[in-house]
Amino acid sequence: MSRVTPATLNSGVMAGLQSSLSRLQQTQEQLSSGRRLSRPSDSPVDTVAAMTLRAQSKQADQISRNIDDGMTWLNTADQALGQTSTVLNRVRSLVLAGSNSTNGPDERRAMAAEVDQLREAVLGMANTQYLGRPVFAGTQDTATAFDPTTGAYAGNSTAVQRTVSADSASGTLAVSVTGDQAFTTLLHDPSATGGVGVLDRISAALRSGDATALGTALTDLDTASESLRSTQSTVGARTNRLLSVQANGAVRSDAIAAKLSGVEGIDLAKTITDLTLQQTAYQAALGAAAKIVQPSLMDFLR
Asked: Using CB atoms within 10 A as the burial measure, which of 66, 129, 272, 294 is most buried?
């Protein structure tokens, strides 16, 4: 028959009190932080799930930033192309007016001077920048997409890409259009003598009063304008796709956040109830322990 000594009894009571206090402190920590997992030992399985969800959340956040950056690229290009289209409509009106025999040399020279100014405006929009990079230069590292003097294209034909989806097969999207696609022969035409662009040819034809040259330049202008509008449609289509991806990404981010909250978060009402019960139980245990654990003579002598 085993004998329970006072030391054994005291040790068991203190171990029970320590366990109860530990549970109480853990519940208090959960309530103050709002999280059920404070360290991996709280739940190794849930910790692994939480780490996976956090990695997915970070990836979703990065994709969201990529989409925002891509939207800005496309919006900047769209504004520049829209303004250029308006300018080209004005140039076309001047060409038609210059073809009218009622306008004399002085009027046509004035029109040519306006075309020159409009060409400078087109050149400025073709060299539009975003974060210090030419929007229409593709991936080429260059100060301007088009040479300020000759109007020659200085970029390349590779559009800027952004990762907009976790799907490796279709996760990237072009968020820019290249200048050779958008502005074609407006500023520089390699096939023309001296590489003279359409706008410069229109200005020269207006000054010379050459009706044939004006007619040819008008046809070239219409062709270049159609290419610009087609490019603007491409920008619009990519913007719509980005908006769709952005909406889907927001839904996915919300789903990940909800799952993470379910794994890491606490049930506030349940946690408060548990804390109250544990506090009551601990106080009761303290009272019972005070009656069971009696001080010995050695306790007084220490």
From this structure: 66
What is the spatial distance between Cα 127 and Cα 138, in angstroms, rounded to a whole number?
12
- Which residues on neighbouring strands pair with residue 188, listed in sequence order? 196
CB atoms within 10 A of CB 27: 20
The model's pLDDT over 195-224, given as tens digits with 9 standing for 90+, comes to 999 999 999 999 998 989 999 999 999 999
If we measure between CA atoms, which residue out of 36, 26, 34 comes closest to residue 263? Answer: 36
Return the exposure string of 35-54: e unless at least 16 CB atoms fall within 10 Å of the residue's CB, then b.
bbbeeeeeeeeebebbeebe
CA torsion angle 269 273 276 277 (round to 10)? -170
Mean pLDDT over each residue of the chain, to the nearest integer: 84
d(CA 118, CA 29): 69
Q: Is 295 exposed, middle or buried (0-12, 13-18, 19+ CB in 10 A)?
A: exposed
